[in-house]
Design a protein that fits this description.
Chains A, B: This is Maltose phosphorylase. The structure is a homodimer. By secondary structure, chain A is α+β, with helices and mostly antiparallel strands. Among the domains of chain A are: 301 residues, Distorted Sandwich (Beta-galactosidase, Chain A, domain 5), CATH 2.70.98.40; 166 residues, Glycosyltransferase (Alpha/alpha barrel), CATH 1.50.10. Chain A is built from 20 helices and 32 strands. The longest helix of chain A has 24 residues. At the A-B interface, strand 22, helix 14 and helix 15 of A face strand 22, helix 14 and helix 15 of B.
């Protein structure tokens, strides 16, 4: 059963009433993050019920030893994992000597809220502990966007029916295990546990990778909103430090603890300076105080929403869903650090280990490009540029030569850390996404200078890969690409996947096109890159032999490109003829049966047509959509969005809306019964695309012109979305009857709306 | 580097000189077994150097929890493993109080011998211990073929340069771990440790499977060959019991311990009787005494060799190699128990877990059929018959219905215990081998009655599987079989593997043929089977639609059947153009590169032509051999034998001999640098086939007539082999000029030799 307990609300995620069975799901859904650090919505106080404790720091990982059933040559020895980091939120609480634990209390009026507009998490409830004392608790917590190493907690307890002692024992604990380990190993070594007056710090380092992290805390107290001092008792353990404070209260009093915490890591500091930096952070935070920090937090999120909000009227759940997605994407990645990327679970869980998939290029870059300054998307591209050497090494391990690069399927630091041969070695279309990301960025921003400066080296290495990976088939007198897995992972080790072959051909062509342009316009860069890559014109002619003679499987009978060789040997039974009891097939069928069936997990041939929609006629799109969508089971969270966009562009709005619904509230309604493991961060970008590119009809093609063709689902009264386009904020409105564009800058922007060219000047209004 | 330390000898495996680096390899090579139990050639005394201790009991296994990197639907939860069983050989020895350990001694005149003619293992050496005492040691050990629960050791120590105490402390130890475990778990629970006068026993049971095993020992002593009594001291631990005896010797005396041991298991006894049965066994053995037991052992092996020996003159290494293979096959499986089968490592190691692969049907049945009473091969067939229900369950898990059966890739008790989707789910040709085994048996023995009694049920279930597994391809207007792995495991998830499609078609046809014959000649059985299987004539017509319209990929250009669809898209570069540095490709190349290459691991299309050689013309065989063999890397120990046989049958004797050499001494010369893990038992049967079927040209086809077409390699002076054929012992001689057949029975046997029909009467002699 799907969960259905989240209260619809335009700007907040709200849970009313306490249900222990929802604790782990809520820990995921109410997660908070600031792009640099983040955490699941664990309780501050002790909780003896089922819980998944998780706190994460961007970029801090551990290479867990690979676990396989049967080793295949070429598998990486390690799988780099997001690392569960020291706990800084914890506060043991005792009421008159009894440990406060919601699992043992009578609870009423429980409310949890994640305020997305302002970027904070709160709880409030009344609880009666076993010994009869009743308390009203309110908590608020956030991780600061402005000071992105700092988190703050306000935790208030009202003594409803007693006078006595409320004991707060805030702590920092580095004795944590990853939920997701292959061999139940401990990943941290504790170096120092430092006690201060009203503060404390633990310096620990990760094994193998030797990331050093200082986790500090500082606290202050108030009774009835008046600051008070309290006497500390320190308990120092091997991996944990706790300060215990006992506050005496009278019936009706409210005792409050403010806890400020900080992570500093060796990614940003000298190791010798870590502890001091962390102490300075908490001191600074404490001096500012909780309310000032919160005010700054609200301002930061207001700035984010200005260029990212989507407003949907007439459908509160859709409104909540899309804002949740935008909010989580921002919590995961803010774009200020080219060493970070977008983990599939963000800071909400550990599953899928490494942080970076091709999802970044195929699904996330459009979101960040359109909602933030162009430096953010550029940082995502530079992440790959910085890992080019590793991608070349990775290809060498698989037998490629001459600087050919294969970007990893999953990575933290550029090294491959996935180990499933049909994916790791064969799902090579990901390499194409790397160039597509550059292409998309350059089209959107018109920042062609990125290519001579960074992109070209990546492109050359990838073109080399495709050239080597294809082979000449004498039987076909064409170049073929054998033994691949396409985006549809329900087919493995297939030959001539249309999508892969198309991308390979395009990558070579686009690289040569850019080489020529760079030679013309950026002579100095050209010379530098050519020398570094040791590239000759002759070599590029060899590449073009492959791209000019690439084979594409095609069916004359159906007048469509085939997903792969032999596709028509399958029994093509549409999904609506599949009994409900058989779905999802990935739970009901054995893997071989899935593989030999015609069923498609996520857009594959259609993924190519989505990426290059401008190169296909509407009739072609319709033909392929009608051939493939009916046999697509959409069992990847990345599937419905692409189909929604294509459906909208061929005027199938009911289908487009049906597909949109399948992901917009994927986590909030827990469609896949797995939200307790964390949220599906990257697929949230897909939902954003469905609204902006699909319903909004907003695409930018190689000519650099922005096209809009907005349509909205009948279920919505109106909607608008805001994008950032070459430094301008454009807001697109669409009700049943009109669409407006606002350009807040002085610049002229050329748009295409319904095939008409329009020059945008400030506040132009276009009625469609 | 290959090892090259085994001394050539016609009847023995001999190691001269002690080399600690060879200990583990020798532990494998000098293994002893009697088909019911067996063990690696570990030292009886303590050894602190590198060693792999292993003792095994046929049929006793443990379902180890499956370990995978990424779970696929349909994987079995457990992998049934050969179980390292309690140690019964151990004798702690002290010389004047110092533990005797070869790893700390000066050793000279070390000799180890495995006498294959008589079935025993011995060691002799002189050793000086660190404190200066010098001893001469001789040991002899065997596991009795006659009393197949019993093992015996004679261990003598001569005090060369001292008078003093020699302490023997024989023990039984159930505290052993499997070398091969997925999660480092202990698989045994110790129930009882029982101390007796001159005997002791441990009753333990396997976790989960609850096999109970009683391991007993009894000892006696002699000084200078005269029986003496000695005083015992018992040390009883949780998992081990030790009896310590101190013998006083004078310089020049020889102290001997005789240790008799026994395994009894709940496979053969009531649990309550196990301990007593084991004590009775050791008492019986001790009463008979070592020499009487040894005499019986020699007699047992003499009987075995009578119908199994192959004599090669002029090539001692070849002689030693083939006898080693015959010896190990017999040590692994004697054929008296239909619950047992032939593990890939026999009793010499643990790798590859479960005991039964399709190797049994494809490679081992011919050996056992030709060298033993026909009841032995029948037991191997009945093993599968007894597991039919599990094979049907296994198919159901993969979505098959109506009693279709898929026999497991690897099994102990009929349940699948392999977990690699491309093998477990897709290497389904193994199902065809099940019927081929029956077909082969019936042709050889003419015991058609096996089919109505047992075989037919298996055949119907498999025919049903093939009918359901194929699907109609509208594009081809034929039936196709998609998503399989053929015998060549260097291709995965391919479509229309010629070998698989051929077997599928043949299985249906042969099943229908047998159904008709049984209907005609065994009406009662027919009615019983038909009712049990709920089979109708209509259903068989549906099967025949598939077999009559099966698709086979074919190349007009090359005039050969293609291994699979799309094979000609590969670059066909013969192996002799592959640089030596690139081989073996399974160590040098990543898995994807292997998959998309043209290189073949082991006979695939040619495996089909080998099995059904009578259905192909010599020209067809030549064409396919010349197409496939040059791109075959023979990286499976099961590959060269089939190619050797085919090469011989198309008169390519140098090639046949080259291929033969690649497996005949695979373990003795440790070609693959892995003999320390155990020997390749099933591939030894392949070597036997190369000699008998290849050089001997001995095949039996469906008409039941035995054909011989002997040729021998130029390197051999002459050779002969002995086979058992329908109760007759036939010895085939071949020198450069002649070939003789001896028939020891009264029956007339029709043979085909060089296309001439010959009636064999006793001692007929045929000059070819």
């Amino acid at each position: 059963m799907n969960k259905n307990y989240i209260v619809p609300s335009e700007w907040s995620i709200i849970e009313n009433g306490f249900d222990a069975d929802n604790v782990e799901a809520s820990e995921s859904l109410f997660s908070i993050g600031n792009g640099s650090m983040g955490q699941r919505a664990n309780f501050e106080e002790d909780y003896s019920g089922k819980t998944f404790q998780g706190s994460y720091i961007g970029g801090i990982y551990y290479p867990d030893k690979t676990r396989v059933g049967w080793w295949k040559n070429g598998y990486p020895e390690y799988f780099a994992k997001v690392l569960n980091a020291p706990n800084w939120i914890g506060i043991h609480i005792k009421i008159n000597g009894t440990t406060f634990d919601l699992n043992t209390c009578k609870i009423s009026d429980f409310k949890r809220e994640l305020n997305m507009k302002e970027g904070w998490l709160s709880r409030s409830f009344t609880a009666e502990i076993p010994s009869g004392e009743k308390v009203e608790v309110t908590t608020k917590r956030f991780v600061s966007v402005e000071i992105n190493e700092v988190g703050a907690i306000e935790y208030s307890v009202k003594a409803v029916n007693f006078s006595g002692a409320i004991e707060f024992a805030p702590y920092v604990d580095s004795g944590i295990m990853n939920e997701d380990t292959n061999y139940d190993e401990f990943f941290w070594e504790i170096l120092e546990v430092i006690d201060g007056d009203n503060n404390a710090c633990i310096l620990s380092k990760t094994l193998k990778t030797e990331f050093h992290v200082a986790t500090a805390m500082q606290v202050s107290f108030a009774i009835n909103n008046k600051e008070v001092s309290a006497t500390k008792e320190t308990s120092k353990e091997e991996k944990k430090i706790t300060h215990t404070y006992k506050l005496q209260v009278l019936e009706g009093d409210v005792a409050t603890i403010y806890k400020y915490a900080s992570y500093t890591s060796s990614m940003n500091y000298e190791i010798a300076d870590l502890v001091e930096a962390s102490f300075l952070n908490v001191e600074k935070a404490a001096n500012l105080g909780f309310n000032a920090l919160l005010a700054s937090q609200i301002k930061s999120w207001d700035e984010i929403w200005k260029t990212a909000d989507i407003v949907i009227e007439g459908d509160v759940k859709a409104q909540q869903g899309i804002r949740f997605n935008i909010f989580q994407l921002n919590q995961t990645y803010m774009g200020t650090d080219a060493r970070l990327n977008i983990g599939p679970k963000g800071f909400t869980g550990e599953k899928y280990g490494g942080s970076t998939y091709w999802d970044t290029e195929a699904y996330c870059i459009p979101f960040y490009m359109a909602t933030k300054d162009q430096s953010v998307a550029k940082n995502l591209l530079k992440y790959r540029y910085n890992q080019l050497d590793k991608a070349i090494e990775n290809a060498e391990k698989l037998g490629f030569t001459n600087g050919a690069a294969l970007y990893p399927m999953v990575t933290m630091n550029g090294e491959e850390c996935h180990n499933e041969w049909e994916i790791t070695f064969e799902e090579i279309h990901r390499n194409g996404a790397m160039i597509y990301g550059i292409y998309n960025y350059v089209n959107y921003t018109q920042d062609f200078a990125y290519i001579p400066e960074f992109g070209l080296e990546v492109m050359i290495a990838i073109a080399r890969f495709w050239h080597q990976r294809a082979n000449y088939s004498a039987a076909k007198d064409k170049y073929v690409i054998l033994g691949v897995t396409g985006p549809n992972e329900y087919e493995n080790n297939i030959n001539n996947n249309y999508y892969t072959n198309y991308l390979a051909k395009w990558c070579i062509e686009y690289t040569v096109e850019c080489l020529n342009k760079v030679k013309e316009d950026y002579k100095e860069d050209f010379d530098r890159v050519i020398e570094k890559a040791n590239l000759t014109a002759e070599e590029t002619y060899e590449w073009l032999k492959v791209s000019d003679n690439m084979y594409f499987p095609y069916s004359e009978e159906h007048n469509v490109y085939l997903q792969q060789d032999g596709f028509l040997d399958k029994e093509l039974i549409p999904t609506d003829k599949l009994e409900a009891s058989q779905r999802p097939i990935n739970q009901k069928w054995s893997w071989d049966r899935i593989l030999r069936s015609c069923y498609i997990k996520q857009a594959d041939t259609l993924q190519g047509m989505y990426l290059f929609e401008d190169r296909f006629s509407k009739e072609e799109l319709e033909r392929h959509f009608d051939f493939y969508e009916p046999i697509t089971v959409h069992e990847s969270s990345l599937s419905p969005c692409v189909h929604s966009i294509l459906a909208a562009s061929i005027d199938r709005m009911p289908k487009a809306y049906e597909m949109y619904l399948r992901t917009s509230r994927l986590d909030l309604d827990d469609y896949n019964h797995e939200v307790h493991e964390g949220c599906h961060i990257t697929s949230m970008a897909g939902t954003w695309m469905a609204v902006v590119q699909g319903f909004g009809g907003m695409r930018v093609w190689q000519d650099g012109i922005l096209a809009f063709n907005p349509q909205i689902p009948e279920e919505w009264k109106s909607y608008s979305f805001t994008i950032n386009f070459r430094g301008n904020t454009i807001k697109v409105y669409k009700s049943q009857t009109e669409c407006k564009f606002f350009n807040e800058s002085e610049n002229e922007i050329k748009l295409i709306v319904d095939n008409k060219e329009i020059i945008l000047t400030p506040s132009v209004e276009v009625v469609l």
